[in-house]
Amino acid sequence: MKEYKIEKATIFVESALLDMSEEDAKKWVEEEMAKGNPLLKKIDPSC
C-alpha cells in the first residue's frame, strides 16, 4: 500500500502493481489487455 498526501487529503492506494518493477507492471497490463480484462477496459476506454 502507498500513501499520498495532496494538500489536506490523504490517499491510500493498495495495488500489487505498485510492488512490481515498472517492466513487470507493464508486462502484466499488456497480458491482461490481451485477455480482454474488462476492468482495464473501464479504466482506459480507448482499448
Please explain how this structure is put together.
The chain has 47 residues and is an alpha+beta fold. The protein has a domain at 19-47. It has helices spanning 22-35, 38-43, and strands spanning 2-6, 9-13. It has a two-stranded antiparallel sheet with strand order 1-2. The longest helix is centred in the middle third of the chain and has 14 residues, at 22-35. The radius of gyration is 13 Å and the shape is extended.
Mean pLDDT: 88
Q: Unreliable segments (pLDDT under 50, ≥5 consecutive)? A: none
Percentage beta strand = 15-25%
Helix content: 40-55%
Strand order of the largest sheet: 1-2
Summarize the structure.
With 47 residues, the protein is of the alpha+beta class. The chain is built from two helices and two strands; from the N terminus they run E-E-H-H.
Task: Write out key terms for the chains shown.
47 residues; 2 strands; single chain; two-stranded antiparallel ribbon; alpha+beta
List the helices and strands and how they pair.
Blueprint: E1 2-6, E2 9-13, H1 22-35, H2 38-43
Antiparallel strand pairs: 1-2
